[in-house]
Amino acid sequence: MAKVGVMLEVGSDGVAVITMSNPPVNALAIPILAGLQEKFDEAMRRSDVKAVVLTGKGGRFSGGFDINVFEKIHQTGNLKLLPNVSVDLVVNTMEDAKKPIVAAVEGLALGGGLELAMGCHARLAAPRTQLGLPELSLGIIPGFGGTQRLPRLLGLPKAIEMMRSSKPIMSEEGKKLGLIDEVVPSGDLLKVSRLWALEIADRRKPWLRSLHRTDKLPPLSEARKILSIAREQAKKTAKNLPQHQACLDVIEEGIIHGGYSGVLKEEKVFHELVLSDTAKGLVHVFFAQRATSK
C-alpha cells in the first residue's frame, strides 16, 4: 500500500518538492490538508529552500476534497469537521508565501485539487490533464477560493460555464485560456516545474497571485450583465438547486468588493450549503452511484 501523507524533498537546486499521496486520486482528506500546511510552513522556514513545487503521487495531482467528510457532517451536523483551508492554507500560506510555489499538475486537478493549484504562483500541466470544479453537482460551491480565482484566470463567462456545468476541460484548452502556464510532457513535468519556480524566485518570470488579478475581469457594468444572464439561465435549468444562484452571488461579491472579500463570502456560503437538503441528497446520490459501480 502506498503511504498516505505529504512528503517534502529538497533538491540541490534549492527547490522543495511537496508531494501529496492518498491513492487512488490523492483526495484532500483532513490528514493531507494538515500535512500540506506543515510542509509549506517547513519549506518557508528552511534557509536551503528557494522555491517550491507542489505535485501529486502516482501521476495524479488531486481529485479534490474528501467527500467522506461531507457525509460525516451530514450525520453529525458538525461543521467544525471542515478545516479552514481557503484562508489559512490557500491564501495565507500558499498565495502570500515569501517563496514562489509552482503546481506540477498531471492526470487530474478537480475541485479542491484545482483550487490548490490556482493558489500557486504558476501552473504547469502534463498533456490531457483534466481540470475542473464539479462542486455544484454535489449541492455546494467551490470552497477553497475557486469562485474567485477561476474568473480571474479564465475570464468570467468561461469560469461561470465551467462551474455551472461541473464539466472539466483538458490542460490544452486550459493553456489557451490562461488557466495553465505551460503544457509539458509528463516525463519532463517536474524538471521544468523546478526550473520555472527558480525563475520566479530570481524574478525572471512573473510572480502572480491569482486572487489579486483583474486583467481578465470585465468592467463592472458588463460583469453584472453576464451574471444576470447566468442567473436567468440557472432559473430555467436549475430552479430547485440553490447552489447555482449562491455561486453567482459569491462571484459577484468578489468582482464588486475584491477577491479577498469574495473568499470570505464563499466560505460562509459554502458552510451554509454543506448542511442544505440539496447537498445531503446529492452527496447521498454520489455514494450510491459509487457503490453501484463497484
TrEMBL record:
<dbReference type="InterPro" id="IPR018376">
    <property type="entry name" value="Enoyl-CoA_hyd/isom_CS"/>
</dbReference>
<dbReference type="GO" id="GO:0005777">
    <property type="term" value="C:peroxisome"/>
</dbReference>
<keyword id="KW-0413">Isomerase</keyword>
<dbReference type="GO" id="GO:0003857">
    <property type="term" value="F:(3S)-3-hydroxyacyl-CoA dehydrogenase (NAD+) activity"/>
</dbReference>
<comment type="similarity">
    <text>Belongs to the enoyl-CoA hydratase/isomerase family.</text>
</comment>
<protein>
    <submittedName>
        <fullName>Uncharacterized protein</fullName>
    </submittedName>
</protein>
<dbReference type="InterPro" id="IPR001753">
    <property type="entry name" value="Enoyl-CoA_hydra/iso"/>
</dbReference>
<keyword id="KW-0511">Multifunctional enzyme</keyword>
<dbReference type="InterPro" id="IPR029045">
    <property type="entry name" value="ClpP/crotonase-like_dom_sf"/>
</dbReference>
<dbReference type="GO" id="GO:0006635">
    <property type="term" value="P:fatty acid beta-oxidation"/>
</dbReference>
<dbReference type="GO" id="GO:0016829">
    <property type="term" value="F:lyase activity"/>
</dbReference>
<dbReference type="Pfam" id="PF00378">
    <property type="entry name" value="ECH_1"/>
</dbReference>
<keyword id="KW-0456">Lyase</keyword>
<dbReference type="GO" id="GO:0016853">
    <property type="term" value="F:isomerase activity"/>
</dbReference>
